[in-house]
Amino acid sequence: MPPTPPTPSDQGRWTSAHYSLLAFGLNAAALIVLFANLLTGNTWWQLAVPIALGGLALGGLSALHSRRLRSRERRNGR
Questions:
Q1: pTM, two decimal places
Q2: CB of 75 closer than 8 Å to CB of 38
Q3: What are the backbone angles phi and psi of residue 7, rounded to the nearest 5°?
């Protein structure tokens, strides 16, 4: 019988690396939205700007959480 994949409760909490990658992805997605808006002639800027600001805000929050978690990991010697 093949082994079953671990459930989310078995995997534990996210590390600072997970949050850093999430922050990078959200910030990259926001920049891609803004760049695509420029390439299409700035026609849908009223939708692109809030999407990009939301992505940048969530990316920034994720980066701050990653930094807090990284300092906690260093303190605990993980």
A1: 0.78
A2: no
A3: -80, 165
User: Is-contact 19 63, C-beta < 8 A?
Assistant: yes
Give CA separation, 51 vs 30, 55, 64, 66, in Å.
7, 6, 20, 22
- Using alpha carbons only, what angle is made at residue 64 by residues 77 and 9, rounded to the nearest 5 degrees? 60
Distance CA 78, CA 20 (A): 17
Q: Output the tens digit of pLDDT for each of the chain's 78 residues.
A: 677 666 666 667 889 999 999 999 999 999 999 999 999 998 889 999 999 999 999 999 999 999 999 999 899 876
